[in-house]
Design goal:
With 446 residues, the protein is an alpha/beta fold. Helices cover 30% and strands 15% of the residues. Strands 4, 7, 8, 10, 11, 14, 15 and 18 form an eight-stranded mixed sheet that branches. A hairpin with a 5-residue loop joins strand 19 and strand 20.
Amino acid sequence: MLSIPGSHSSRFCDGQSRRGFLRMGALGLGGLSLPGLLRAEAAQAGSSRKSVIMIFLPGGPPHQDMWDLKMDAPSEIRGEFRPIGTKVSGIQVCELFPKMAAMMDKFSLIRSVVGSTGHHAAEQCLTGRPSQNAPAGGWPSIGSIMSRLQGAGAPGVPAFVGLSPKMGHAPWADPGKPGFLGPAHSPFQPNGGGSADLVLNNISLERLQDRRALLHSFDTLRRDVDASGMMGAMDAFQQQAMGVLTSSRLAEALNLDREDPKVRARYGGGSMKCRDDGGPECPEQFLMARRLVEAGVRCVTLGFNRWDWHSRNFPQAREVFPQLDNGLTALVQDLHDSGLDKDVSVVVWGEFGRTPQLNKEGGRDHWPRVSCAALACGGMKHGQVIGATDRLGGEAVERPVDFQEVFATLYHAAGIDTHTATMNDLNGRPRFLVDEQFKPMPELIG
């Protein structure tokens, strides 16, 4: 593993310093090394730049308070927030999403997501499938599938990056497992744990901008490795791995200090720590995801904040909704401004919705029967609402959309044909990416 020290005053997400964030260890499941990842991805490398950014909202967001307000329902169901009009006539969202409202033509809202298993975990949002009756090894996540079928989008860049840090509730921190595809298609986790084996001494993140200083330090490290006789035993992929971790596009993408301060400010500062046992209050993760797909990463997953609001639903929403509004709209606008809106798909959702009825603590409890999602970019047709719930927001009454249907759409946008693409499981049996009855959503792809 390689560590690049950073300043102790700059902290990221779960309270770790940026030094901790750029610790290059624990790169995959099963002990697979970065050279192993690069070796596997080289065999699958392609020229397409299609990518997916998967934003998971740990705990289950309250759909009826965000993008599906029920103003005709009783007060104990309706809640405290008011709807506001958007750029698209006839579509309304919560008043705490004014930036999203102003660019609703760039979003599609699904108000009728069904099929949740009710598990308090990221797994279904990462695979599209329930864990019950999974094949040996488990279902692979979307990032692992894109890694297997398409490989890296640029030399020396991992195909799949998971940004979720360690969380108090571990199933929320799942960045996406490779399942039966094996550890070669595990996510690269730049904030993974582990102890350092190689350190670039005296090189802070700030000094990464000084390429000469970086190269000088790396030359010193290389001489030390050569003296030990290790370098001669390294194959091309091991040498490439050392390059990736010091001077490649990946290191550039991970260094937010290279971003315009005005751009960083648009994403919103917030608190750089995890919220209770959930995800980080860190809209800059969205910026990191954008930089990674620009560098050629196929899939980036991240967990944002904590949404399991069994009490104090509305006070917590007043804090968290604006953070999501800032980070999400900044990401989508940047993708449009850079011309990546046709190539990068963005999806935002949680594992289930919340109860229509408020409980005695002023919160909403788990509600697997229906939830919501937002999609953007990917060359899809946006500026629309898909599906509807009943007067109380408790049941899908129009156009129910299964998790796998969303996945079929994301794969289609990434240039993968779910009708023909298969992967062999551990028994050699070919498996389709989604079950046969699920097709890409015609509302989005035409």
